[in-house]
Amino acid sequence: MSNVKNYSKQGGEHRVVEGELEIAAGGKLTFEGKEVKPAASQAESNATTVAALKDDFNTLLEKLKAAGLIKSG
């Protein structure tokens, strides 16, 4: 038995990462064929109405979708 934090289980279909996963320059992370990347920054909401809060929330959702962190549709 090996004493490592990152390994593939028998058959290679399952990988375990207990340490840090670093994606170096030129590397990318994909999910269902789409690249996943950090979402654009979102300013804290200063909304004073429910309508304004809804707009801020929808802006956040769009940024998360664009980053590939939430499925569109």
Strand portion, in percent?
Answer: 15-25%
Distance between the termini: 45 Å
- How many helices does DSSP assign? 1
Quaternary status? single chain
Counted beta strands = 4
Structural class by secondary-structure content = alpha+beta
Give the SSE order as H and E letters: EEEEH
The dominant shape is: elongated
Uncertain segments of ≥5 residues (pLDDT<50)?
none
Question: What Rg, in angstroms, do the CA atoms define?
Answer: 18 Å
Secondary-structure topology with pairs:
Elements: E1 6-8, E2 15-17, E3 29-31, E4 34-36, H1 50-66
Antiparallel strand pairs: 1-2, 3-4
Write a structural description.
The chain has one helix spanning 50-66, and strands at 6-8, 15-17, 29-31, 34-36. The mean pLDDT is 89. It is elongated. It is of the alpha+beta class and 73 residues long. 0% of the residues are buried. It has one domain. It starts with 5 loop residues before the first strand and ends in a 7-residue tail after the last helix. Helix content is 23%, strand content 16%. The strands form 2 sheets. It has a two-stranded antiparallel ribbon. A two-stranded antiparallel ribbon has the order 3-4. The longest helix is centred in the last third of the chain and has 17 residues, at 50-66.
What's the gist of this structure?
The protein has 73 residues and is of the alpha+beta class. It has one helix at 50-66; strands spanning 6-8, 15-17, 29-31, 34-36.
What are the defining features of this structure?
alpha+beta; 73 residues; 1 helix; elongated; two-stranded antiparallel sheet
